[in-house]
Amino acid sequence: MTLYSMHYLLKFTLLSLASLYFFVEPVFSTSRRALDQVKPTQIGFRVALKHVDHGSNYTKFERIQRGINRSKTRIEKMNAMVLASNLGTYDVESRVHPGNGEFLMNVAIGTPPNPFSAIMDTGSDLVWTQCKPCDECFDQSTPIFDPSQSSTFSKVSCSSDLCQALHSSTCQDGCQYMYTYGDYSSTQGILATETFTFGGSDKVSVPNIGFGCGADNEGNGFNQGAGLIGLGRGPLSLVSQLNEPTFSYCLTSIDGSKTSTLLMGSLASANSTLSASNSKATNVMTTPLLHNPSQPSFYYLNLEGISVGSTHLSIKKDLFTLSDDGTGGMIIDSGTTITYLEESAFDQVKKAFTSQMKLQLDDSGSTGLDLCFKLPKDTTTLKVPKFVFHFKEADLDLPSENYMIGDSNMGILCLAMGKSSGMSIFGNVQQQNMMVVHDLAKETLSFVPTQCDAL
C-alpha cells in the first residue's frame, strides 16, 4: 500500500495577458514538529526564480489559451472538493494537494551536487525530485538524480518524525509516500534525506533535508521542472525544515525579461529585506497570518474590505472570514496567477469598475478574464480607478499595473482578477514588484514596495 497525504485546495493557474503598451495612471504561529536532524541555526540564501513560460515564443492569444487550459481541470476538481467538504464525504485515501506553481528555481542535490530545476510552491509542503531507478518518469532537462551515486543519501525510517508528518505511512524498505496534485499529477517513491545546495555565486549547502525520491511520477502539470520545493507551513516543507521561519520573494513584472528572487532564512528578515530593496520602514505594510487547522499548509490573510476609486465597497463584513469548518477565507499564493475573489465580492468590484471606467465593455470572451474593456484607438494615457485591499492593519494600495493589464494591438484592457466560489486567492500579478515577507515566528506577512528586477 502507498501512503497518502493531502491538502484540499486546487490552484488556478491562468497566464495573464501581455503587458500594457500605454501608461496607466491610478486615480487610489504556525505549530512545528521537531524533525529528526537538527539544521544549522543560521541559514540564509538567495535563489533566482524564472516563470515557467519565460522566453517562450507564444503569441498573446496562445499564452491566454495555455493558461485557460491549465485551469480547467483544477477548477472542476476544486468545485467537487468544496461540495464533498460540505457534505462530509471525503475519501481519506484520495486526498489531493494544490496544483503546481508558476515559478522555477535552480537547486542541486546530493554529494557531489546534481543540479535540477524545481517548481517553487507556497501551497504545498513536500520537497521532491525524480529518482533512478525510475518506473514512470516525465521528461526533464537535467539528468534524473541517482541516489546510488551520492555519498549523503539516506532513507528515512518509518518511525521518524518526517515519516510521521505524513497523514499515514507504509513501511516497505523505508518510508513510502504518494503525493497527488489537483490536476491529477502525482509523485510516488521513498522518503529520504539529502544535502541540498541553493543559491547562485554564493552557494549554501544544507544537509539532511527530507525529500521525496520519486520513482513513479505522472502527469503534465510539472511545468518544465524536475520536482517541487514545497514552501507551505507544514513540517515537511523546506521552510519548516530549515529552522529559519522567515522567507520572502520578489516577483518581477509579468512583461519583464529579468528573473525574480527568493530569499530564505536570515537573508529574508525584515531588516535584510529593507536593506536589499532600499525601502524605508514606513513603506512596509504588515498584516497577521491566520491559521486554518483543516488546511494547515496555506497562508491565510484577514481581508476586511475592498475600495475601488473613492468607493469603499459594501461587502458583507464576514464574507472573507475563515469559517469554523475551515471554508472561506483568503490565501496568498505565488503559484496562482491572478487574484480570485468570492463571487458576490467580485460582482461588486466589477460593478464599481464598470461605472467608473466609462469605457465600452468587451464581451468577446477572447481573453479568459471576467471583466474587459474596449480601448479607444491611439490611446496613450488612461486613468483607472485606484484599487485598495484592506487587510487587517494594512491597506494595500496597488499600483495600476498590478490589477489592470491590456494590449493596445488587441484594443483591450482587462481587470486581472476573477471570481471564485468560497475561498479567495491573492495571486502573483497583484504581488509583482513587492517584497512579500513571510515571518512564521511572528505569524505575519509584510508587503514592501520594491523594484524587483533591480535586486
UniProtKB/TrEMBL annotation:
CDD domains: pepsin_A_like_plant. It comes from the Eukaryota. One of its GO terms (cellular component) is extracellular region. The active site is at D121, D333. Residues 103-448 form the Peptidase A1 domain. InterPro entries: Aspartic_peptidase_A1 (IPR001461), Aspartic_peptidase_AS (IPR001969), Pepsin-like_plant (IPR034161), PEPTIDASE_A1 (IPR033121), Peptidase_aspartic_dom_sf (IPR021109), Plant_Aspart_Prot_A1 (IPR051708), TAXi_C (IPR032799), TAXi_N (IPR032861). Signal peptide: none annotated. The keyword Signal does not apply. GO terms for biological process: proteolysis. Keywords: Aspartyl protease, Glycoprotein, Hydrolase, Protease. The keyword Hydrolase applies. GO terms for molecular function: aspartic-type endopeptidase activity. It holds the Pfam family TAXi_C. Belongs to the peptidase A1 family. This is Aspartic proteinase nepenthesin-1. It comes from Spinacia oleracea.
